[in-house]
Design goal:
Two copies of one chain form a homodimer. The first copy, chain A, is α+β, with helices and mostly antiparallel strands. In chain A, about 35% of the residues lie in helices and about 20% in strands. In chain A, strands 4, 16, 17, 18, 19, 20, 21, 23, 24 and 25 form a ten-stranded antiparallel beta sheet that branches.
Chain lengths: ~650, ~650
């Protein structure tokens, strides 16, 4: 046994001894305040359908082409140059490029759990060697703060992204360890973190700040992986925000960074959206481990702030380009929406923790909303174009889908989400199995009693409402099946082996079916995918008098490409006429489009007038799923449409 | 005769020989393409009423207190330190503070034309001495690019503001020269400009760029003042935008600066709003002097772009905080509106030139809209608080009115506008007199035939519609009186000496009354100040389904201070109920307030719902003039209200 492993085992509580391959995206098996427990990524196989197609695209097209781009842009060379000091290779890109590679590594690692690929695994191993060859004996590893910039280490904690990069390194390392059992990268990141634990912390140690929160999440997960409580303690120190004076933080820093003051003093989301949501996600991880009631109160306050006043109908987050920031409550502009892909993903990560803590279906509903819409929009159907921004309206001159961003955070963030996606579908609890999201998939895992359990979901989701779940427990056993009833499914029917269930499904709750389940039992849900108009709170200034159109979990948009008549920005919904749905197998890989006899407003009458705008002209309207905006090339599109 | 004066006279065309004291804000007497000609500032006396009160506040409170602040913040010391190199006085403030003092000087100078004040004049003389003591023998004068920064002169033309400061120095110099006949500051600024003329221009001279356009205006006016064509030629060179390569300008520079490419290649307003509008104003001055048809076409294109898609209903301009910039067409957010006071003023300056060129009442209407609303809001009733931003909605936590800004461009810009305000009310043309704006005032000037003419306007504007104009020409003479019929006066009646005029007034045109006018003739206009709902083009996303309320030239706002019931952001107009007007002499110095039995929308129902917002509760509503928002302290307010 290697000494380092022997050392770790001293700290291991029972649950950390769960084999790495049985650990999920989060390893909550012995987490005291987790009501729900994730299943391993490998336990879920997406079957042909909506998300399988997206996952395949991410794994087959997106992950390999992004690696080539990271090579081309120097992200890997930034490591290689440190192992060969006189190579003459220049440092390229912004100071946080290391994190882009780490996030790509995490995506690639999870993909191996879904689609084993020896060639990719060999590439990952080589990449890890490249990375670790640049690590210093102390454990420090960062390709920016080297050479002439070495003296700047830890002097730019508000902007330097050193801990941000380390956080993503750790997450990649944990993913690769869980999928392959290989711990080389994990040992490397642990070495760096051990250096931090030794030298940084409350006075008299050196002060530390996550200028871009992210390490908090990674530390909590590393604690779960290793059982070393010091990692959680350092997360607690970071969240405690006690270093304002030693680090001379300004009031603006405390808002913008969402760091540097006690997390439990927060009352609203503000500042940089991704920073704030990563901080809250890390704090939720901390709560899950500690049960600190002050954290729980703050987390619930923030979750309510987000869902009641700062989230776009697409699940997107972040209203302002300036500072990539949250806005005021109800400040949810459409064309100007910043809605960074990373922020929508960060919102999902936050809700994932809140769901694990509470089992509250509302969090799963928010995950679904973001996943199908404001996250899904971030990657094109080709898998090679990405959105940094995901606005709710844009013009043909806006270039929103691009193959590369110098700040390349969103592409690998989308990839790691899609690669591991099945793991978001199911959880276990002491008393049973939870089904959060519905798509064709199989689960091959076990109940917490230890009984092996297979489940197969066959569905027409998101286009149809039929969902059939076939259970194959290894033996007859009483447990509860929790099915999420989406908020949009106002009338749901449930059959068990063809007979109506006594339990009444309610939207936005889990339907709990406690039975002695036997192999071959079938539960049939019929979700209500009726097309609905969604109205915003009247305080949302840009959406007043308008509606978005939703069918099942899918938000729709009117794009000029499908509407050769009036400008889409002039289209309005005619409340007298229905909206029809039709599945078009050849459009955008197979989508349900909506058609409607709407109206065209007259926008030719000057900027201001003493008469309200008139809408005398009927106008046929076709709507496509929002996530596919600009997928066929830039064109005017809009989600919110006036209702007349 | 001093040599410099003899030199200048060689270049003087006839009109430049008009005495300085007869020259207006613009001196267009011999400008070939000016249809209208300004009257001198001193020729108009505002009489007790709406604008007299604002002008008095600017002159009595605002101008003296701002000088004290400029002293306190080091703006004058920045000059003094250059005359005393070893004084140890530090350079303070951003690099453009010189312009703040120059603009204050211009305001103070114009104020002397309205209210002679020997003490203020002595202060101005001392200030001019302070300024000129810092001027270098070459003519160069800038308090930032001195000492260690001397080597940076002309190396930072996109950001350095050297020409911007010189432009404001020149405008101040011209104002003081026209009001007092004193030319010390004029000689100083001319010396600097002569240095530019000598060393800068097309290759092989050094390249020059107005990184912040402003000098173009000043050069055109200096040409008009001195007759030296070289000054206009250099303005032409700046507008020609030929130095892109020599100055290595990026595409972003060309947009943001609205400079650096040929002005005649512009097709829309974009980039920094004040920069773009100053550039267009300078180009309009250039057109007025040259008649270049390509300039005319571009100016009309830009004017239409502004008024048809980029101007707030308050006359405010500039949609985005980021880059202080214009947005896309119809991007006119309310709370997020940037609407810098300087941009509204710049819009007025642009329209002032377009009005002089065309005599088109639409430009005067836009001047009026901005002046009463989006400019007037910029200075508090105390005269000591200023708005940098003038949004159309704000919360009680927004601190919009402040005594000082480190970028102190708006306060003196407002002051110079109010100090010289009467000069915007009247023009002459070959065939008569034009009345653009209606407030109690007297004009003491002459027709272009040379006949002395007095005119007295007595009116209840802006609260009432009655306007009586009494004419006193020195002799009976046939000429045309042009009265602007505002766009909002849909039904106007006109009496001449008590009898209905044959001519039919049309909104947004000038009513031309050609008569042999004799002393004592009275024209009585009754303008239609009925309260009206104003609707925005449906492309203005935030205003859809809403209306602003206008009465005469005044835009109204609902502020929480007057509305103790529901939150103003929940208020809606009930189209079934009337809006009543009442003059309250004790409120805000005497204003007409509007009251209405409106509705309160229910904003308590979550962020998104499948039902539209309901408005079951009646809610009494009181509205005050928009320009007075936050004048009684910060409070939620909004201009645009849903109509139910």
């Amino acid at each position: 046994m290697r000494p380092v492993l022997a050392f770790l085992l001293l700290f291991l509580p029972a649950a950390a001894q769960v084999p790495a391959s049985d650990q999920g995206l989060l390893h909550l098996a012995s987490t005291p305040n987790a009501r729900l427990h994730p299943v391993p990524v490998r336990a879920v196989s997406l079957q042909p359908g909506f998300w399988k197609s997206r996952q395949d695209t991410a794994i087959r097209n997106s992950i390999p082409t992004l690696l080539a781009l990271l090579e081309e842009k120097g992200t890997l060379d930034n490591f290689r140059r440190l192992a060969k000091p006189n190579s003459g290779i220049p440092r390229r890109g912004p100071l946080y490029t290391d994190s882009d590679l780490y996030k790509w590594l995490e995506a690639a690692a999870w993909s191996l759990a879904v689609q084993p690929n020896p060639k990719l695994e060999a590439t990952i191993d080589q990449t890890i060697d490249t990375i670790l060859a640049a690590q210093e004996p102390s454990g420090y590893l960062n390709t920016w703060f080297t050479g002439d910039r070495s003296s700047l280490r830890w002097t730019q904690q508000t902007s330097g992204h050193e801990l941000y990069c380390l956080g993503h390194m750790t997450q990649a390392a944990i993913a690769y360890y869980r999928v392959t059992g290989k711990r080389k990268l994990l040992d490397g990141s642990t070495k760096f973190i051990d250096y931090l634990v030794r030298d940084f912390g409350p006075s008299p140690k050196q002060p530390l700040l996550t200028g871009h929160p992210e390490l908090e999440l990674a530390r909590a997960e590393l604690y779960r992986t290793t059982g070393n409580r010091q990692y959680l303690d350092l997360a607690a120190y970071l969240l405690s925000g006690v270093e304002r004076e030693r680090l001379k933080l300004s009031n603006r820093d405390l808002v913008y960074l969402f760091s540097g003051k006690p997390f439990t003093g927060r009352t609203q989301f503000e500042g940089h959206a991704v920073r704030a949501l990563y901080a809250a996600t890390g704090a939720a991880d901390y709560y899950l481990e500690t049960g600190d009631p002050a954290y729980r109160r703050t987390l619930e306050t923030l979750a309510a702030d987000l869902s009641s006043s700062k989230m776009f109908v697409t699940g997107g987050v972040g209203s302002r380009a300036s500072g990539e920031a949250f806005g005021e409550p109800f400040e949810l502009p459409n064309r100007q929406a910043y809605t960074e892909s990373c922020a929508a993903i960060a919102g999902m990560l936050f809700h994932q923790r809140m769901l694990a803590a509470t089992g509250d279906a509302r969090y799963a509903d928010l995950i679904e909303r973001a996943l199908y819409n404001g996250i899904n929009s971030g990657m094109s159907s080709s898998g090679t174009l990405y959105c940094y921004r995901n606005p709710l309206a844009a013009s043909a001159s806006d270039r929103i889908r691009n193959p590369w961003y110098d700040t390349c955070c969103c592409p690998p963030n989308l990839q790691r989400t899609f690669a591991a996606l099945g793991a978001y579908f199911y959880s276990t609890s002491r008393d049973g199995l939870w089904v959060h999201l519905y798509d064709n998939s199989t689960l091959d895992w076990r109940l917490e009693s230890g009984t092996a359990l297979k489940a197969q979901v066959q569905t027409g989701q998101p286009w149809r409402g039929d969902v059939q779940v076939t259970l194959t427990p290894a033996k007859i056993e009483e447990f509860t099946l929790y099915f999420r009833i989406p908020s949009w499914s106002l009338k749901t029917t449930v059959l068990i082996n063809g007979n109506p269930a006594a339990e009444q499904p309610k939207p936005n709750t889990y339907l709990a079916l406690k039975r002695a389940w036997k192999p071959g039992d079938k539960v049939t849900l019929t979700l209500d995918v009726e097309t609905r108009l969604v109205y915003a709170n009247p305080r949302v200034s840009e959406d007043y008098g308008k509606a978005a159109i939703q069918r099942g979990p899918i938000l729709y948009a009117a794009e000029q490409t499908d509407n050769p008549g009036p400008a889409v920005f002039d289209l309005a919904i005619d409340h007298r006429n229905p909206i029809s749905a039709e599945f078009l197998p050849s459009l955008l890989g197979g989508v349900t489009v909506l058609t409607h006899k709407g109206l065209a407003l007259d926008s030719s009458t000057g900027l201001y007038a003493y008469q309200p705008p008139s809408a005398s002209k009927p106008a046929a309207m076709t709507l496509i799923p929002y996530y596919a905006f600009h997928d066929r090339g830039p064109a005017n599109f809009t989600v919110w449409l006036p209702v007349r």
